[in-house]
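F.,

This is the one I mentioned.
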């Protein structure tokens, strides 16, 4: 679906002709650039765009099918970049992954978005209303703004994940008998998905920030800023993974300790119950020559003996911490 398209000359938005070929020719002839935004386009729709902008078939195939890893590729005079968008779902504490594909070439930039995360409408409006007139730098400014918005969303997700990890950590080390292994494992899966979106993007952004031929010299400091933010996110993701591993190990250790405590309590009570069982079993044999059977005080003596031994064992187990 075509979301928006416009010509930008000297940082100002202008109406673009309905025909994409004519719009591109106008942009190249006047020193402007054309920005076309698509959302989950059909294959036929993207084929029309590819034909007018001479996009490489392999890049177009990736843009249609989605589910690509973050990457930066150069096809003749066109730059193709895949960005993973991350959206944090508060209700379920899940991470929803989408994609933004960017085609950049002579006089044009095409953005293709898959998924609900990181809509680019606010990016376009911010660029159009910016007092810094960022759009005067051409399509590289749009490329930077899209990438910056995606990386900023990574930092927002980092804050939410840090809050979830802190909650799990408090639960694991609380006095309550909880088993947080399932939640820790789920968080580790989310971190793994997050890592797949962040780590492969580091080298492409570094390439854009240093000496990529498609990026003007004046635009490279902006990409270096994105690269710095991305490195910070990667470091936090690595820390989260290590922290969750430690929390999981601590949770398993606590479960083991609790199981040992339960076994000691069960053992102590079994020992206490075994005493009256043993005494009752001996005198329940009813042999003829058992003097205590004919003793007047035999019955209360047996009861007192059972109670005395049981109380002594109970006190001993309590002092040793088994009960």
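My design for it:
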């Amino acid at each position: 679906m075509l979301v928006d398209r416009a010509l930008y000359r000297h940082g100002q938005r202008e109406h673009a002709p309905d025909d994409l070929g004519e719009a591109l020719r106008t942009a190249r002839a006047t020193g402007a650039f054309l920005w076309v935004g698509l959302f989950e386009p059909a294959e036929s729709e993207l084929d029309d765009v590819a034909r007018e902008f001479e996009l490489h078939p392999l890049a177009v195939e990736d843009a249609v099918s989605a589910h690509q890893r973050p990457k930066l590729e150069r096809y003749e005079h066109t730059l193709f970049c895949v960005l993973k968008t991350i959206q944090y779902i508060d209700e379920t504490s899940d991470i929803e992954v989408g994609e933004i594909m960017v085609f950049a070439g002579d006089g044009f930039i095409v953005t293709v978005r898959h998924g609900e995360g990181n809509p680019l409408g606010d990016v376009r409006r911010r660029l159009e209303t910016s007092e810094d007139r960022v759009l005067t730098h051409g399509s590289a400014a749009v490329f930077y703004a899209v990438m910056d918005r995606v990386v900023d969303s990574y930092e927002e997700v980092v804050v939410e994940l840090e809050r979830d990890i802190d909650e799990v950590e408090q639960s694991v080390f609380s006095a309550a008998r909880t088993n947080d292994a399932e939640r820790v494992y789920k968080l580790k899966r989310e971190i793994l998905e997050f890592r797949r979106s962040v780590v492969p993007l580091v080298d492409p952004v570094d390439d854009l920030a240093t000496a990529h031929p498609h990026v003007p010299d004046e635009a490279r400091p902006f990409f270096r800023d994105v690269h710095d933010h991305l490195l910070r996110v990667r470091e936090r993701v690595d820390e989260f993974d290590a922290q969750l591993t430690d929390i999981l190990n601590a949770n398993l250790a606590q479960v083991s300790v609790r199981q040992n405590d339960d076994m000691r309590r069960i053992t102590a009570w079994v020992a206490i119950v075994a005493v009256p069982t043993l005494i009752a079993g001996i005198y329940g044999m009813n042999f003829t020559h058992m003097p205590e059977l004919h003793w007047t005080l035999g019955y209360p003596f047996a009861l007192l003996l059972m109670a005395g031994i049981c109380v002594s064992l109970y006190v001993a187990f309590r002092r040793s911490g088994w009960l």
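The first strand starts at residue 2 and ends at 9.

Talk soon.
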